[in-house]
Design brief:
This protein is of the alpha/beta class. The chain contains 15 helices and 9 strands. Helix 8 packs across helix 10. It starts with 8 loop residues before the first helix and ends with a helix.
Length: 319
């Protein structure tokens, strides 16, 4: 469960003590400690590296702050802006992320996998061009209409960056990686086929020789569901808007699915949480499936409800 650590008291104490979110990301010992918290305190089955979707973008030379979410001082809007970007080397420019991965891998039991992650090229582009979070990310969507060649040039650059960053995480100890395409729901099928599919497929192909499972998470992208099997990932992660039966009907049992409990279900009663989780578990019984939320944990989610969910899933697996 991505962002599960932020609901935990020890994380909030670290955040208060150190103040800056960037300091937590950039201090390997702290990032490793936070990565391990959900394993130790919630009993989840895998660790997800504590970093951020936009982390590699700072290595391009883009000044980044958090207020409270990511804000880039100078959004990338022109050919001159792209010309001014650096060509980062993850082993040097993102060494703090890789060191955190080393520390976590060495601390985890051998049976508990570490999952690394990065944003998909399209999603990275929406953040870099917009400069911060915005409803519907209109700045990059304007670019794909007004100057598609420039958009493709940026996507090409970000594809190489995401590929190298994920490769470096695998080499640093991540046994699997997830590609988060949280802006992909903005695209029509035709736009997805032009501005997303070729690039995320290239990321997957670049990692093939490393034999690490790749999970693809396209948020709010139901209109493009039939295309997700062409991405080249080993697992498709679904948000709560997509019915698992419909997805299995489309892909059969050839595509393992991950998900897809609505994170807001965790605000419900113990009985309603158990019922919602068991519904998904029954839908996927006998099929390749990784139980998870349909997106990240919200910061005010009651910790005891998340622990309850983990226990429900574990108990079901024993039946």
């Amino acid at each position: 469960m991505r962002q599960a650590g932020r609901i935990l008291k020890p994380y909030r104490e670290l955040r208060q003590q150190h103040g800056s979110l960037l300091k937590l990301f950039k201090t390997p010992e702290l990032a490793a400690e936070i990565t391990l918290m959900p394993i130790d305190l919630l009993g989840v089955d895998a660790a997800i590296l504590f970093t951020d979707l936009v982390t590699p973008l700072e290595a391009l030379g883009c000044e980044l702050t958090y207020a409270p979410g990511p804000v880039f001082a100078h959004p990338i809007r022109s050919a001159a802006d792209i010309n001014g970007l650096r060509n980062p080397v993850p082993e040097d420019d993102l060494a703090y992320v890789l060191e955190a991965a080393h520390l976590v891998r060495n601390a985890l039991p051998s049976a508990v996998p570490l999952i690394g992650y990065a944003g998909g090229p399209f999603t990275l582009a929406t953040w870099l061009v917009e400069g911060s979070h915005a409803k519907d990310f209109p700045a990059f969507r304007r670019m794909i209409h007004s100057d598609p060649a420039l958009a493709h040039r940026l996507l090409d650059l970000l594809t190489d960056l995401a590929s190298r960053f994920l490769r470096a995480q695998i080499e640093a100890g991540a046994q699997a990686v997830q590609i988060f395409d949280t802006s992909i729901g903005l695209l029509s099928p035709a736009q997805f086929n032009e501005f997303a599919l070729p690039y995320v497929r290239r990321v997957c192909r670049s990692l093939a020789a490393l034999n690490a499972p790749i999970i693809y998470f396209p948020l709010a992208g139901a209109q493009n569901l039939s295309s997700f099997g062409r991405v080249g990932a080993h697992v498709l992660s679904l948000d709560w808007r997509i019915n698992l039966d419909a997805a299995y009907g489309l892909f059969g049992d050839t595509m393992p699915l991950q998900g897809n409990l609505d994170p807001c279900a965790l605000y419900g009663s113990e009985a309603s949480i158990a019922k919602a989780a068991q519904h998904i578990l029954k839908q996927s019984r006998g099929r390749p499936h990784i139980f998870n939320l349909g997106h990240g944990v919200y910061p005010d989610t009651p910790c005891e409800k998340v622990k309850l969910l983990v226990d429900v899933v574990h108990q079901f697996a024993q039946t």
